[in-house]
């Protein structure tokens, strides 16, 4: 085993839940903001956010990124999506093995 | 950007993994206990919990909620499901953008 | 409600994202290393890790385990997979209801 193979780094796990029609646009934007990758799962959901209500198919996008990239993504989503789309975003702390790849 | 658009709030992310047959019942119950929404993904799984063993299709239900709602959901699941069903429940801390929508 | 039904325990949630061809091998290995169960979802993804790039179908494997089992799984993946496969691994802290079942 390489000496540093088990080095872990604190990173942010950003989860975005959004309408499927937003997939291409959201993925382009998060990559432009610094995301080095994403994992996308098909989901169903239901929710209410203020006057927005939705039920049906959803995309669930997960991104592991540095705190700076996470902040940029959150700010972008809050600014460009929250007024008009039923987008949910939350962030968790994770430890990533080989974290230097996500800078 | 609105002054408070990036306000984040600490919330709980509750993940429930359960048999597909429980979907409708579980979703009704978590909404009754205060969940404002959920995200549901189809999964497969395998596990052992005491005398319970399972392998096959699973539902994975994610709920973002206040700590009080999370406690109510955990208590309900522990009381009504753990003896008879292979239900797994875990809770993580997340930061939610625009968290006031989940109260 | 049983007196101890709501006992929670701090555990680790390990998420592995990998190529679908690795499914059987990875699941056998994590069980050998002490995982008592897993949840598997089909995903799509894209990413870059050093010289590795990938895009397409992914498996997303989630495992709730003790810190010791989590460490063993991370060490194994770092040692046996990171040089040759586009495997992503991250770990989060979770509170598990009825945590004694995951030891």
Model description:
3 copies of one chain form a homotrimer. Chain A is an alpha+beta fold. Chain A is 23% helix and 47% strand. Chain A is built from 2 helices and 4 strands. Chain A has helices at 23-32, 67-80, and strands spanning 8-18, 37-49, 52-65, 88-97. In chain A, a hairpin with a 2-residue loop joins strand 2 (37-49) and strand 3 (52-65). The first copy, chain A, is globular and about 45 Å long.
What keyword list fits this structure?
homotrimer; 4-stranded antiparallel sheet; 103 residues; globular; alpha+beta
Question: Helical percent range of chain A?
Answer: 10-25%
Order of strands, main sheet of chain A, comes to 2-3-1-4
- Flag low-confidence runs of chain A: 1-5, 99-103
Structural class of chain A: alpha+beta
Name the biggest interface. A-C, 23 and 26 residues
Number of strands of chain A: 4
Strand content of chain A: over 45%
Biggest sheet statistics of chain A: 4 strands, antiparallel
Q: Order of helices and strands of chain A, N to C?
A: EHEEHE
Molecular shape of chain A: globular
Count the DSSP helices of chain A: 2
Q: What gap, in angstroms, lies between the N and C termini of chain A?
A: 23 Å
Let me know the average pLDDT of chain A.
87
Radius of gyration of chain A: 15 Å
């Amino acid at each position: 085993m390489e000496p540093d193979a088990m080095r872990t780094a604190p990173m942010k796990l950003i989860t975005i839940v959004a309408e499927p029609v937003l997939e291409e646009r959201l993925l382009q934007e998060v990559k432009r903001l610094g995301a080095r990758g994403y994992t996308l799962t098909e989901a169903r959901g239901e929710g209410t956010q203020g006057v927005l209500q939705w039920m049906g198919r959803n995309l669930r996008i997960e991104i592991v990124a540095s705190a700076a990239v996470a902040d940029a993504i959150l700010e972008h989503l809050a600014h460009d999506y929250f007024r008009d789309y039923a987008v949910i975003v939350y962030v968790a702390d994770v430890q990533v093995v080989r974290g230097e790849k996500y800078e």
